[in-house]
Structure formats: C-alpha cells, structure tokens
User: What shape does this take?
Amino acid sequence: MSTLSERILGGPAGSYVDRDVDRAFAHDGTGVLAMEAYRKMGNPKPARPETVSIIYDHIAPANTSHTASLQKELRAFAAAAGFVLTDVGGGICHQLMSEGRALPGEVVVGADSHSCTMGAFGAFSTGVGATDMAAIWAEGSTWFRVPETINIELTGRLPACCEAKDIVLTVTGEIGMDGGTYRALEYTGDGAAALSMAGRLTLCNMAIECGAKTGLFYADKTTQEYLAQYGHRIERQDPEDATYCRELPVDLSDMEPVLSVPHRVDTVAPVTEYAGTPLDQVFVGTCTNGRYEDLERFAHIVRGKEVACRTIVIPASRAIMQKAAESGVLAEIIAAGCMVGPPGCGPCLGMHMGVLGEGEVALSTANRNFKNRMGVGAEYYLGSVATAAASALKGEITSPEGVL
Assistant: This one.
C-alpha cells in the first residue's frame, strides 16, 4: 500500500524517479531567472509549451523602470516560446493554478517555494529553482526523490473563532521549520474531509514552512464540486493503509487562535499571550489567505465598523476580486477604512504596496515572518483572517474569540 505521493510519482519512498511534468509555472521574478538559464542552454525548442504558465504577481504592477523592462523582456520571451502568459492584475500564481489549472494525480512544478499549494487537489505539487525550471521547459520532465510522508490526522471540528490558518500554524509549531524536510505532509481524517477547498489550500501552501516537499489532501467530493466549476470531472482518491514515517494526530476541537511570533514561523503562541500589542499595519491577502472565503470572513467582522490602523486587503486573483465586488464584500471592506490593492502578492515579499518601516509592527495573514522580509527593521506576526480583522478594529493584537 502506498502514500499519495508514492502513488502519483510511481515509486516507494527514497527511490528516484523521472516524471513528465503535467503543469509548470513561474512568476515575473523566477521567470526572468529561468529565461536567462534557458538562453544559456542554447534556447532549445520547448518540449510542451502549452503546459507552461508565466504569471506576473510578485511585483505587479512594476515598481521601477528596471522591473518594467525585465517584465517586458519576459513577455516577449513567453510569447515566442508559446507559453501561457497571465499579465499583471491576473493574480497570484498559486491561486491562478488553483482555478482549474491543476488536477488530482498530476505532477505540478512551480519556480516558487509555495508551489506545494496545489497538493490540496491531490496533485504532487512542489517548487524548484529557476535552472531546474528551465530544464523542465526544454525537456518537459524532471526527476524526484520520492519523499517519506508524515500523516497529519485531523479529527473533530474547529471552534467558530478558529480557521485553517490556526491549524497550519499549530502544525508548523509542532513539526518545526525543518522537521518535515524532504517529506510530504498528508492530511487525513474526518477533520480534513470537512475543510473547504480554501482551507485545504491554506494548509498545503504552508507545507514548505516545515521544510516539506509538498502537502496533500485526497481528492474527494469537495474536490469534485470545486473543480466542476471549471468544467473538470475528476475521480476520487481513496487513502490506502500506507506506511508513514510519522503520525501526528490533531484534534481540531481543542484548537485556539494562534500567532507566529517574530521572527520564526514555528514560534507559535496563543493570540491571547500577545493581546494588546500595538500594530502599525494589518495585511490580509497572499497565496495563503487571499481567497474569497477569506475576504468574506474579514468583511463579516468589520461590517459597519472602522479599522483603527493601516489595513491593506489584496485579493489573490482577479476572479476573487470580481466576486467580492459583485457580492458587496469589497464595498464593506472599503467602508471600514481599508485600502484594497490589485490582485497579486502585495507587500508579502517586501518590494512595494505596503512594506513596513523600521520599528513598525504588523499582523499579516501571509506565510512568512522572517526578519527584514516585509520591511527592514520591522516585526511581523502571522495570524488568521479572523485574528487580523479583530486586531485591525482595535489597532492592536486581539483575539477573535467573542466577535464571531
């Protein structure tokens, strides 16, 4: 019997396999680096250009003339190669790949560390460097060492004040930032089955924060219903009696709102321990928590109220932004005094659209709080959307308990 990673890659844990890559993608940052490596290879004819996506999200729109020139060059390269290009404003690469582009059982490879996100669909999805991505463009395939798997069995139901972000921060605190190195995190149990697709994407997105190669859910009825929106009919994946390198049971009913405390993702503590910490900024968005479900939850909490500190909300894709606009969610967020940015990564990588100043403190729904990442000399706490909303209303770290 095999884990889901072993089934998809076609080999036991520890073995080496060559596999065709079903979907490959890069963004405006790594795409430029991969383009340079590709040219050094002699600019060969791409093996399967229709399976390659170039998605502008990291510095979108461009913040300097130099950035704009690089993006112009990459546009021309992608067009000549026959790649699928999504320009600025389309959204974050991981979200766009999650909008009907990645399917269960596929091998999905992105030139970004959070490419593990699409494991939420039952795909083997992982990140590689720019040189490896260039080789995938040329050959259409790559090699893998099949990872061992940690089984994270979720049972019970989350309290109303908690959400998927609290689960993944708790799991990261338990495993540690390197406890899952070159392993897969496989989510099972009735608690996993009860999670929405947005919640599953959040959990898989942060698998890399434990050092893991990928995070995975088995494709089930929820997966089928989600992908049917994009015209896909897919088969379910049923778990087998697999051999795991570690078993980690998590009772969701015991969960409480938590934070990652500067400057490590695995330094996790209850929100109540840091309640009252003044905030200069709250940021809601990114490939971790910029989906419609997140924006809707945030709007529900701030409805009819006004935020007490700078609050930036950025949808993860154009489709999400449009749905939020049509439903009135966006209007409620704006009415609360928040600034809404164009679909993309925003300040997450520390380039523009909300970068912090020295000595400033922020609470973010992103996936990383490394020192100097989102502003030199600043501090960033990571939390759930509900925690971000409750904190934005008070201008200080606040638990969402009692507001939901």
Notes: The CA atoms of residues 289 and 384 lie 8 Å apart. The radius of gyration is 20 Å. The chain has a mean pLDDT of 97. The chain has 14 helices and 18 strands.
